[in-house]
Please model this.
Amino acid sequence: METKPRNYVPILAALFIISIVYWITGNIINVYQNTVVGGVDEVLWVPMIAAFVLPPVVSLVLLYKSKRNGFPAKPYLIFGVVSAVIVIAALTA
Model:
């Protein structure tokens, strides 16, 4: 019996988009101008780093598993990895 891989793409895309919006907002707005917003930012920065790093890693793992199991490489996995690398490079520059 052949099993299909689960569809993690919506979850990965949502995590990545939320983390991108968080980082861009943090770069544009001075979050420490308001105490409450600064406190929320301090609480959220570790989960946002995880949400920023995990989707490309999970995409690479799923891409490797799909090739190993005989499934064709999904273009959205490749696109996810490439877009993540581009955004990470742009935000760290």
Summary: The chain has a mean pLDDT of 76. The chain is about 75% helix and 0% strand.
